[in-house]
Amino acid sequence: MAGWNADTAAGPLGAGTVTLVEGSSFCISLQNGDMHSEHPHGLFVQDTRILSGWGLTVNGQPLEPLAAEAKEPYRGQFVGRVARSDGYADSSLIVERLREVGSGIQERIVVRNYSREPAECVISLTIEADFADLFEVKEARIQRRWDETRQANDGTLIIQAIWHGIRKGVAIRAPGAGSSAEGFTYQVSVPPHGSWNAALTVVPSIDQDSISPAFVHSDGDGLSPRDRRRQDWVAKIPVLQIGNRSIERTLRRSYDDLGSLRIEDPDHPDRVVVAAGAPWFMTLFGRDSLWASEMALAVDPSLALGTLQTLADRQGAVIDPMSEEEPGKILHEVRLDVSSGLSLGGKSVYYGSVDATPLFVATLASVIRWGFAKETIAALLPHADRALDWIREYGDKDGDGFVEYQRLNDQGLINQGWKDSWDGINFADGTLPEPPIALCEVQAYVYTAYQARAWMAYDAGDTSLAEELSDRAAQLKKRFNEQFWIPERGYYAIALDGKKRQVDACASNMGHCLWYGLIDEDKAPQVVERLMSPEMFSGWGIRTLASDMGAYNPASYHNGSVWPHDNAIIAAGLLRYGFVAEAQRISTALFEAAEYSDGRLPELFCGFSRDMFAAPVPYPTACSPQAWAATTPIQLITSLMQYDTNVSRGEFWMNPVLPESYGDLHVANAPMAGGRITIDIVNSVPTVQGLPEGMAYRRGHRPWITEMLDQASQSRQV
Predict the structure, then answer these.
(1) How far is 109 from 82, CA to CA, in rounded Å?
(2) C-alpha to C-alpha distances, 564 to 103, 285, 581, 589, 631, nearest whole angstrom
(3) How many domains does one find in the chain?
(4) Is 515 helix (H, G, I), strand (E, B) or coil?
(5) Does 412 fall in a domain?
(6) Which of 37, 507, 524, 646 could serve as a FRET partner for 347 with CA atoms 20 to 30 Å apart?
């Protein structure tokens, strides 16, 4: 999930940082609540760092951190103490900071005096605002210098800045404080065993358009707009209980993180989409948002619909080598700030993704199964057809039937699949292939896109189109199994290079082909044996690259690390081919890994063997929370439940194979066909209550699109 310059590594946030997230806003600070501009700290709104420094001192001393906790994804509490000047270890002054992030921040400061004497305190807050672009901060390359003016008066500090005609500003309000150009000062006497408190708010303005932080609790219920938004989210998603309390905690954390990563389409506030991940990717990504919303269908199908609609509005229309836009292509990344050209080649939208376009069509098929109004789906069908046109006219660069990528300018991503680091695709000896490159998993996505659109065509009575696309899919599967399979090694090449040579590294990518059914049945056992081998399976999950490959590095981004979402996709594919024990093993390993990070799976962790280290080794710059990592536990459980639906057919399927160690499962308020159902799995026996009228429960797996196409074709022939 990299930006334009993916080969430029982001510096680590540093030990002990705290990230709070709400929509596309986020705040990064130290554990004492301070932010320092020399680090990638700050308050970011619409991809702009509107606060770069936020330092609290009491009597000239910074706070010694005692505890920091995210109460909700958008609200954090920091507790610190003030060092004594007389050399004694214990301090009688404790400072609490409660911070809430919206389109700005509100911070309440409480100083508690635990001594028997009054405490004379000078409480100071210094403030910096550099208005840096998110990528400038992330990559530690801040180059612009804004012409800044500061106006301080009566508990208010207004900072305004201009650069090349662009104006930005921020207003900080601290009622009761003395104000200066540097910040605010309170001079207070805190009574014995008493306390003092104050509240500050930060209100940004982008391009002179003021953004209301809406921190006022106008309804009198003590809830902020973020609290009410979270309440609305909790009310519409399933309530889950599972015998294994550790797994239950992880799933509930996933729900919370998914809720915090929801952002609104600025042009359509009623549409909610999934941002890719915090802190650096709180925006719409084609691939990431599609995968995350697909994996979260059982929790909230509307996320996938909103993602499709938003991507459709921004579907490629022209040929633009700088942004890599092409007609019908689905975008890779959107950035909100006017200076995003620093990272996106002068454009706010970048299209350098080879897989988002076929995934768009595949996700549309999933959304259709979960049941939405016909006119809503009908509006998306032309976009699916344009996506297929891109696959044929631009994706298949040499007409061999495979979809390849090659960047269109020297600033674009070198690799344009999900492993998009510069060295993420390699031969077994570690050397890098020359483009254009045809990735194995992309062919699986294209295969499913053809089948998905064929199924839609059959459903609409367009037999000619359905048969044409079904035939394309069958031909692709045949060619793929001939040209990507390496029989002497028992696995599929990760790719074909520009000379159609097999890029022969053993990588996790082929596991995606299992989920989509592209792998021949007779080859699946060898693929599974390789995926679950000690070289691939670390004990915490399947590595991105086998440990016996030339480019293997357990602490790399894509060459030996373990990505939870990658494993969730593979586990689903294993179940499709009947490898239940292997899918259970992967699922259990990931849930056990989550125990070491407070129930939250990160974007990735290092690929060191479980025999070597007793806990998963963190990857230093992993996003957390991150969308497809947050939805991984949901995908794992729904896969093991074999839980799916096709509302248009009036059928709901479930055939659970949950490991015994998970215990019994109870799910209430689960969305289904416009209603809500309750599911119980006791001793592996499922029961369902509340199915809407016209829906029937079927024990077994939901028919794959391949099977549905066969059924449709046979019915046409009868």
Answers:
(1) 14
(2) 30, 18, 18, 10, 9
(3) 2
(4) helix
(5) yes
(6) 37
Choose the final residue of a domain: 157, 190, 223.
223
CATH of the domain at 500: 1.50.10.10
Start-to-end CA span in the chain (Å) = 48
Residue 705 lies in a domain: no
CA nearest to 640, candidates 705, 587, 699, 592: 587
Domain boundary among 504, 531, 558: 531
pTM of the shown model: 0.87
pLDDT for position 499: 96
In terms of Cα–Cα distance, which of 358, 353, 246 is closest to 590? 246
Q: Which domain holds residue 53?
A: 18-223
> What pLDDT is stored for residue 280 in this prediction?
67
Whose CA is closest to 287, among 188, 233, 358? 358
Cα 601 from Cα 158, distance rounded (Å): 40
Task: Break the chain down into helix, strand, coil percent, rounded to 5.
Answer: 30, 30, 40
Residue 553 CB partners (closer than 8 Å, separation 6+): 559, 560
Please list, in sequence order, all residues whose beta carbon lies within 8 angstroms of the beta carbon of residue 550, skipping any fewer than 6 positions away: 426, 427, 428, 429, 430, 431, 505
Question: Which tokens is 466 given?
Answer: 């359905």
Contacts by residues 535-540 (CB-CB < 8 Å, ≥ 24 positions apart) = 535/506, 536/506, 536/508, 537/585, 537/586, 538/562, 538/607, 538/608, 538/609, 538/610, 539/589, 539/609, 539/610, 539/611, 540/589, 540/590, 540/592, 540/593, 540/605, 540/610, 540/616
How far is 640 from 630, CA to CA, in rounded Å? Answer: 17
Q: Residue 168's Cα: distance from chain center in Å? A: 29
DSSP for 516-539, written as a single string: TT-S-TTTHHHHHHHHTSTTTB-S
What gap in Å lies between CA 501 and CA 686, rounded to an integer?
48
N residues, the chain: 718
- Which ranges of 422-492 does DSSP label H, i.e. alpha helix? 440-460, 463-483
Query: pLDDT tens digit string along 428-460?
Result: 999 999 999 999 999 999 999 999 999 999 989
Spatial distance between the Cα atoms of 416 and 540, rounded to a whole number of angstroms = 27
Beta bridge partners, 681, equal 665, 686
pLDDT value, residue 273: 82
Angle at the Cα of 450 (from 445 to 455), degrees rounded to 5?
A: 120
- Does some domain include residue 606? no
Output the pLDDT for position 4: 27
Residue type, 253: R
Q: Report CA Rg, the chain.
A: 27
pLDDT of residue 716: 65
pLDDT at 655: 96
Which of 82, 90, 117, 110 shows the shortest CA–CA distance to 192? 117
Instruction: Print burial letters for 64-80: b (CB count within 10 Å at least 16), e (below 16).
Output: ebeebebebbbbbbbbb
Angle formed at CA 58 by CA 52 and CA 64, multiple of 5 degrees: 75
Separation between Cα atoms, residue 226 and residue 75, nearest integer Å: 9
Residues in the chain predicted with pLDDT less than 50, given as ranges, are 1-15, 207-211, 213-214, 216-220, 338-345
For 258, list phi and psi in degrees, rounded to 5: -60, -40
Decide if 485 is inside a domain: yes
pLDDT digits (tens, 9 = 90+) for 473-502: 999 999 999 999 999 999 999 999 999 999
| CA nearest neighbour of 367 among 312, 324, 306 | 306
- Per-residue confidence (pLDDT) for residue 474, from 0 to 100: 97
Q: CATH number of the domain that 137 lies in?
A: 2.70.98.10
